[in-house]
Specification:
This protein has 3 helices and 5 strands. By secondary structure, the chain is an alpha+beta fold. It has a 5-stranded mixed sheet, sandwiched between helices.
């Protein structure tokens, strides 16, 4: 499902903080009940770091989300995006990555390398201002 960029946001991404801010706004569009689920998005970027697309890949449960690498790369390949960022939320408010978060990041990174796509980051957000970059661990 393609997601619209918030109207007050620019398409250019300078850093992880920009993506975290934008994705938090997208998460907060959901009503409070729906925010108690994990959402997993893929963001495709141009070579100039402009957002080409934001795609909601899956909606999970309170603490689990199953994403398949083929779903991550579907839009990236179709739109010829050579850079992607992954983002998902933790409804608990704890942005610490789980073992599964790290494992799926490594799996998607391996697939990205084969396809010639650069996985720039995988960030975990919550409703608050906190976020964690899996690249930082």
């Amino acid at each position: 499902m393609n997601v619209r960029l918030p109207k007050d946001e620019d398409i250019h991404i300078a850093n992880t903080k920009d993506i975290a801010r934008i994705m938090r706004k997208i998460l907060l569009r959901q009503n409070r009940l729906h925010r108690k689920k994990e959402y997993f998005w893929a963001i495709g970027l141009s070579t100039a770091h402009n957002i080409e697309y934001i795609e909601l890949l899956t909606i999970g449960t309170l603490n689990k989300n199953r994403v398949k690498p083929i779903d991550v790369f579907n839009f990236a390949v179709a739109k010829k995006c050579e850079k992607i960022i992954l983002c998902h939320n933790h409804p608990s408010g704890n942005t610490e990555p789980s073992k599964d978060d790290v494992a799926i990041t490594q799996l998607i990174k391996a697939g990205a390398n084969i396809l010639g796509i650069k996985l720039l980051d995988h960030i975990i957000i919550c409703e608050g201002k906190e976020y964690t970059s899996i690249n930082d661990i």
